[in-house]
Amino acid sequence: MDGTKTANEFARKDGMLRVRCVGHAVGRHPKSDAFIITLNDRVWLIDGGMRGNYDAYERLLDLREAWIGKKSREVDDETCKLHITCLISHFHVDHVQELVSHILKSPYIAVDEIVFPPETALRPEASRNEDYYYRNVIRETLAEYQPDTKVSVLHYGLSGVVHTEYDGLTLDILPPDSDWGTDEKLDLLTEIHFGGNAGGHSISIKSINSNSVWHLFRFGGKRLLFTGDSNKNDAERSDESVDLMAAEYSDILGGHIDVLKWPHHGCVRNAAAGFMHSMTPEYIVITTAELETASAEYTERYPDDEAKLMRLASEDIVFYVTADGNLTVRCCSDVFADFENGEEAGCICLSSLRPALATWAVATAFMPMRCPAAPRRRAE
Prior knowledge:
Elements: E1 17-21, E2 34-39, E3 42-47, H1 55-68, E4 82-87, H2 93-103, E5 109-116, H3 130-145, E6 150-153, E7 162-166, E8 169-174, H4 183-194, H5 203-210, E9 214-219, E10 222-226, H6 241-248, H7 250-253, E11 259-261, H8 273-278, E12 283-286, H9 295-301, E13 308-311, E14 317-321, E15 327-331, E16 348-349, H10 355-365
Parallel strand pairs: 3-4, 4-5, 5-6, 10-11, 11-12, 12-13
Antiparallel strand pairs: 1-2, 1-14, 2-3, 7-8, 8-9, 9-10, 14-15, 15-16
Helix pairs in contact: 2-3, 4-5
C-alpha cells in the first residue's frame, strides 16, 4: 500500500460475522448465487451472481459507503477502494457473470485474491464448457482492471484443502474430491442423469456443477456451509458429487452445519434431502425464485425436522453470528441497516418464526416488493 486509505480501514470492527445471501429480481434469471461475508474489516465474496440484477455489485458499493460514511469526502474518491477476496464455487453464468460484468471492473473495488476451482480435463471444445470460457475471461478481465490480484488455483481432494484463520473465524475451502471432467466421470454422469444416453443434452453442465468447491465458515461455534451446484440426482445412489464430497470431508464438516446452502440452488430436481438432513441444520438456504423447489421433498421426508427453510427471492437473507455463538437471521436488503439501526430499518427478524412460516415469509411475502434500481457508478 502507498499510504492511500482503503474503505476497509473505516470498517465497524464490532466482532460480528455477517453473511448476506444476496437476493435477485423476480422475473429475471430465477437462480443466482452471491454471498457477501464480512467480519471486522475483512470481506469475502462467494461467486457474484447473474448479470442484469446488479444486486451483488450494489451491495458491495453500499458496504463501502456504509463503512466510509455517506458524507465522507472519500466516498467519491476512487483511490479509497473496498478490498475483497473472491471465492469461486464453479464457472457457470448464474454464479460469475456479474463478477465479470461489473464487480471486477469497478473503480471502487479492489480484489486482493481470487480463488479458482481446480483445472479440469473437460475438453475446451465441449459443448457449453463455461469453465473454459469464464476461467479465461476472468483472467483477461483481471489483467485489464485488477492487475495486482493474486490468482490461486485449487487442487483436488483432501490434500488441496485451504485453511485460513482471521479474528476467531476459520475458513476451509474444500475442492472437489476428484475431477468430474475426465472421460470416466463423464460416462458416469451420462449414466446418472440420462440413463447412459445424453442425446442432445450437454454433459458439460453436469461436469462443471459436480466440480463445485465448498466453502465452510466457522465462527462463534457456528458452522456455515456453501455447496455451489454439486450434483445429487438420485437419492438411492452414493457415488455422486454431493455423496463423495460429504465422505471426503466428513471430519472437517463435523456432522453438523448450522446454516447450509442447498446444493444447486435447491432446485426441485436436486435430490440432496438426505444429505441436508444428516447435517442437522438450523437453517437451509434455497437460492432459486422458482415456485417449486426441493423443499417439498424435504418436508415430506422429514416432517418433524426443525430446520427452517429459507428461500431467497427479491430480498436478501442476512445471518448474524456473534463471537459467543448467538445466531440470528433477518430479511433485509439494506446494507446500511447492518451498521446503523438494523432492526428499525425495514428488516424483518426471522429467527423466531416457525419453520413453515419462515419459508413462507421469505419466499412469498417479499417476492414482488422490490424493483431493482439502476446501479450507481456501474462499471461499463
